[in-house]
# Entry
Amino acid sequence: MKKILTFALTFCAFIAAMACGSNDPEVDGMTGATEQTGGDEGTAKGKMLVIYFSRADENWQVGYVERGNTAIMVDYIKEQADVDVFEIVPVVAYPADYDECTAYVTEEINENRRPAYKNEITNLADYETVFIGGPIWWGRPPMLFRTFFEAHPELDGKTIIPFGTHGGSGVGSYTTLIKEYCPNATVLESLGISGSSVRNVSSKNTVENWLKKLGVDKQSTSISNVRAKTNTANASYTLNGTRSNGQQRIYIRNGNKYIKR
Ligand SMILES: Cc1cc2nc3c(=O)[nH]c(=O)nc-3n(C[C@H](O)[C@H](O)[C@H](O)COP(=O)(O)O)c2cc1C
# Structure
């Protein structure tokens, strides 16, 4: 219910802002919250990839920044999990000036454009779990993500984890877009952090707790590619790790290494 209300408020604000020509995305009256939106049952597994877009330069409530807000969130994920990273970089950079950018994006949405991006990823098949995230632009993920999803139908069926930063709208619209393009994906709990607070230490902790809840952390993913050198489906393996106090509590499940504290 909360999710529906949030989406409805954002959508109304978006329509209202478009109607009165405002470039201000905060018109939805919701501020700065960190929000976690429930997803399908399950945990992250196998080899992991983070796909993201983030715009530096002038932004809502942070002024000019050298590194975009979502990029900071990606830094936290990288610190805490063994992930590969693919950045979606638009061929035509978005205007550095915030007001110019919002006007430009309004046109992009109205014309239903599919902006091109620079590099391509060719080994998506290698990944079982994919984080997908970016900013919220006018109540939704940037159109770049539509370009990306349309080029990558192979994302469907994977475990996908939405995340992003926003100015108050939350990132539930990432889950909606992912489900639109990947109806067979398992979409886990998303995390949205307000762009103005993403640089706070508390946000780093929030990311850490969210990842733990999803079954992701450096220790549980440091062996992500355990492969059996046998055709026996039921082969079993032992892996012992010794802590300084002598406890042996390392085990592998679904190709992930776990350390029991
Ligand atoms: C063109 C544009 C539109 C935006 N629209 C919204 C919006 O509708 N709702 C919202 O909460 N924040 C909105 N924002 C704020 C961004 O989502 C927020 O600053 C985000 O953290 C930017 O992330 P980035 O630096 O990774 O690009 C908008 C920002 C821009 C530049």
Notes: Residues 1-12, 14-32, 221-226, 242-246 have pLDDT under 50 and may be disordered. The first helix runs from residue 2 to 20. The longest strand covers residues 159-166.
